[in-house]
Amino acid sequence: MAQYHAKSLTKNTTGRRRAAHKKKKYEIGGNWIETKLGPDRKTTVRTLGGHRKTELFATTFANVTGKDGKIVKTKITGVLEHADNPHFVRRLTITKGCVISTELGKVKVTSRPGQDGVVNGVLLS
């Protein structure tokens, strides 16, 4: 089901606010893409203005920037920490800010995989 991102018709004081207009298509938000650890699955979606987003549903690789600034494509072995929700670790969900383990070591994810279509990260150890 689509999300509706317009101003609420209920005020903080529990009063009612008059609607300035009906619901518009540009106020519809997309569903959250839960990027998992697994075989690669992605799709491309058209967004407002004819632009494109690549939604990543599952992946096994990440682009890791090391201390020397070089970028290496490496295999993801697991999800270690998640500040947003501790259950994401159990469900192997990858989002921005989570710490994943790779063949190079611990990596903090800096991209938004559900919208960027790729997992980028910075080497921590």
Summarize the structure.
By secondary structure, the chain is mainly beta. It is built from 2 helices and 11 strands.
Overview of the structural elements:
With 125 residues, the chain is mainly β. It has a single domain, classed as Structural Genomics Hypothetical 15.5 Kd Protein In mrcA-pckA Intergenic Region, Chain A. The protein contains 2 helices and 11 strands. It has helices at 87-90, 113-116; strands spanning 3-4, 28-29, 35-37, 41-46, 52-59, 61-65, 71-81, 93-94, 99-102, 106-109, 120-123. Strands 6-7-9-10-11 form a 5-stranded mixed barrel. The N and C termini lie far apart (41 Å).
Under CATH, the topology can be stated as: Structural Genomics Hypothetical 15.5 Kd Protein In mrcA-pckA Intergenic Region, Chain A
Radius of gyration: 19 Å
Strand content: 35-45%
The number of E-state strands comes to 11
Shape: elongated
**Average pLDDT figure:** 93
Strand order of the largest sheet: 6-7-9-10-11
Determine the number of helices (DSSP H or I, runs of at least 4 residues). 2
CATH class: Alpha Beta
Parts with pLDDT < 50 across at least 5 consecutive residues: none
Distance separating the two termini: 41 Å
Helix content: under 10%
Sheet having the most strands? 5 strands, mixed, barrel
How many domains is the backbone divided into? 1
CATH architecture: Roll
Question: Which structural category do the helix and sheet elements fall into?
Answer: mainly beta
Helix-strand pattern: EEEEEEEHEEEHE
Q: What would the keywords be for this entry?
A:
125 residues, mainly beta, Structural Genomics Hypothetical 15.5 Kd Protein In mrcA-pckA Intergenic Region, Chain A, 5-stranded mixed barrel, 4-stranded mixed beta sheet, 2 helices, 11 strands, 6% helix
